[in-house]
Every structure is written in structure tokens, then in C-alpha cells.
Design goal:
The chain is mainly α. It is built from 4 helices and no strands.
Length: about 140
């Protein structure tokens, strides 16, 4: 998958998961009105900036999977907290900041999960194609 397509896909997946969480939280809190369009756009800008930051830090050669996760979560937090405070998405009290961190982890886990499912599906398609080619006697 091309680099742009990969990071744009991550952006769209994270935005979708974030919007689902936001709508769920609004529903639980009893908000009857819908999500403001400006907030939805700001959230997309936020997830897009996160994708750019992750693209840049992914250029670092990190061999450790746990360290890669830590860097990814730090990338997200470095965008979410400043922009979220600037755009008045949340207050800077400890309970709220911890809650935002839980949302960060949930979205990150969701993106990783969807990416793993997609990779497994792609792997299956490739393996079926290779078996079919082998069955036809084709060589590459």
C-alpha cells in the first residue's frame, strides 16, 4: 500500500472510531442535539495532523514493538492535548485528561485492530492468488 494511502486510511479509521466514541458519550450524557459540524471538522483536522506526525516519527528506525506503541501514543497525545485545550474540547483537570487518555488508547487500539484484520484479509487474498497461479503453472 502506498504511504499516502496507508496514513490516509489510518486517518479515516481513527476519525470514524473517534466520532463513534464521541456520539456514544454525547448519548450517555443525554445530549439531544447532534454534533456540531465545526467540531466534526476540527476532529478530522486533529486526526489528520496526528497522521502527519506519525508519518514523520515512523521514519525513525524503532526495532522494539512496545517502544513503537509508546511513540505512537505520545504522537497522538502531543496533538490531542494542545489542540483539544485550544479548541475548548475539554478542561485541563486531571480527571478529564485521564479520560481523554483512555479515549486515545481506545482509538489507537481500534486502528491497530482494524489494520490487523485488514492485513490478515490481504494476506489471505495474496495466498489464494499464489495457490491459483501455482495450480495453473504460472511463474512470476
Amino acid at each position: 500500500m502506498s504511504t499516502f494511502k496507508q496514513y490516509f486510511t489510518y486517518d479515516c479509521i481513527s476519525y470514524t472510531i473517534l466520532m463513534m466514541i464521541e456520539c456514544l458519550l454525547m448519548s450517555v450524557r443525554g445530549h439531544k442535539e447532534g454534533l456540531d459540524a465545526n467540531i466534526a471538522i476540527q476532529m478530522f483536522l486533529m486526526t489528520s495532523l496526528i497522521s502527519v506526525v506519525m508519518f514523520l516519527t515512523d521514519k525513525l528506525q524503532i526495532g522494539s514493538f512496545p517502544l513503537r506503541i509508546l511513540i505512537d501514543v505520545a504522537d497522538i497525545a502531543l496533538v490531542v492535548y494542545p489542540l483539544g485545550l485550544w479548541w475548548d474540547f475539554f478542561e485541563a483537570d486531571a480527571v478529564t485528561l485521564v479520560g481523554i487518555f483512555v479515549v486515545i488508547l481506545a482509538v489507537y487500539a481500534g486502528v491497530v485492530g482494524v489494520s490487523l484484520i485488514r492485513a490478515k484479509s490481504d494476506e489471505g487474498k495474496i495466498n489464494r492468488e499464489l495457490r491459483a497461479r501455482r495450480g495453473r503453472g504460472e511463474r512470476r
